[in-house]
Specification:
Layout: E1 2-4, E2 10-12, H1 14-35, E3 39-48, E4 52-64, E5 68-70, H2 76-82, H3 85-104, E6 113-117, H4 120-124, H5 128-139, E7 146-151, H6 153-156, H7 159-171, E8 175-181, H8 188-193, E9 198-201, H9 203-207, H10 213-228, E10 232-235, H11 241-250, E11 254-255, H12 266-275
Parallel strand pairs: 4-6, 6-7, 7-8, 8-9, 9-10, 10-11
Antiparallel strand pairs: 1-2, 3-4, 3-11, 4-5
Bound molecules: ligand C2E and calcium ion (3 copies).
Protein name: cyclic-guanylate-specific phosphodiesterase
Domain EAL: 23-277
Length: 279
């Protein structure tokens, strides 16, 4: 807040100055993190009933020089506001495709699917498709195992352009998941026109699935909607056996969550795979 003083001059209060300097520091540190390769991807297994690993979602982590491993909530909003998300998002896509290409060349991991989160600003870049093509070529990855996770809110503006861009990428073999489904604006009309492959039921619905009949009704509706549109439906944030059981009863057979595994560094993910049946 800018406070007006008696003579009409305005000044920042101490709190605001502190915030501004924190943001400057974060901007500086994020640039350092990009140039010093401090970002890493963790991989959370995605499974299909009865427990076959189909692939993973890549989740960003920042190996901060003094603060340890930081999750996206510590920096992703700021990265989005400051535009640094474009550089970070590119780096995520490169790392994800490199990892996927490695898996594709190894027995036991060759058919894994990898899901990558794409931010609104990143997807809206006019040259996003060109960037993806360049990264696919450079990594030599088979794009049919790559999934991009978009959120509802980023699909609403410039709908026709969004559809066209998704179709271009789809033609390369890339598939799309709609993330956090049920939390944003969603109209059946537009959902039907998007070249989607998967709906991800938001963790918030899964959370209260067991105790709350309303949540159950919502989840049932989402699952039916997905089935009607011919989409795969995956529940995220599954933490308990009871949640898994309700999901299966409601007809949702794809899932991910702490009940199976947390996001893991790639070596631990590969270890997890060896102990589970890979699809
Ligand atoms: P999201 O895409 O909805 O990812 C799922 C989040 O839920 C992850 O948090 C994951 O660790 C967490 N999670 C998974 N299973 C469970 C569970 O059973 N219980 C609970 N309580 N949480 C679970 P994370 O890794 O902290 O990521 C947070 C958000 O940051 C993501 O939400 C996504 O929106 C964003 N994000 C992560 N990586 C990237 C990235 O590479 N690029 C962009 N643009 N955004 C990213
Ligand atoms: Ca996601
Ligand atoms: Ca999600
Ligand atoms: Ca989320």
């Amino acid at each position: 807040q800018v406070k007006a003083v008696g003579n009409g001059l305005a000044f920042f209060d101490a709190e605001m100055q502190l915030q501004a300097s924190r943001r400057l520091l974060l901007a500086h540190e994020l640039r350092e993190a990009i140039s010093n390769d401090q970002f890493e991807l963790y991989f959370q297994p995605q499974l299909v009933h009865p427990g076959v690993v189909t692939g993973a979602e890549a989740l960003l982590r920042w190996r901060h020089p003094t603060r340890g491993i930081l999750g996206p909530y510590e920096f992703i909003d700021f990265a989005e506001e400051s535009g640094l998300i474009l550089l970070i998002g590119e780096l995520v896509l490169r790392k994800a495709c490199q990892q996927l290409a490695l898996w594709q060349r190894q027995a036991g991991t060759s058919r894994l699917e990898l899901s990558v989160n794409i931010s609104a600003r990143q997807f809206q870049q006019p040259d996003f498709t060109a960037l993806v093509i360049e990264i696919l070529q450079q990594s030599g990855v088979d794009a049919t195992s790559l999934k991009l996770e978009l959120t509802e809110s980023m699909l609403v503006d410039n709908f026709e352009q969004v559809v066209a861009k998704m179709q271009q990428l789809r033609a390369l073999g890339i598939r799309f998941a709609l993330d956090d489904f049920g939390t944003g604006y969603s109209s059946l009309v537009y959902l039907k026109r998007l070249p989607l492959y998967q709906l991800k039921i938001d963790r918030g619905f899964v959370d209260e699935l067991v105790q709350d009949d309303n949540q159950q009704a919502i989840v049932r509706t989402i699952i039916m909607l997905g089935q009607t549109l011919g989409l795969e439906v995956l529940a995220e944030g599954v933490e308990t056996e009871a949640q898994l059981k309700s999901l299966l009863q409601l007809g949702c057979y794809h899932y991910q969550g702490y009940y199976f595994a947390r996001p893991l560094p790639h070596s631990e993910f590969e270890h997890f795979l060896r102990q589970h049946h890979a699809g």
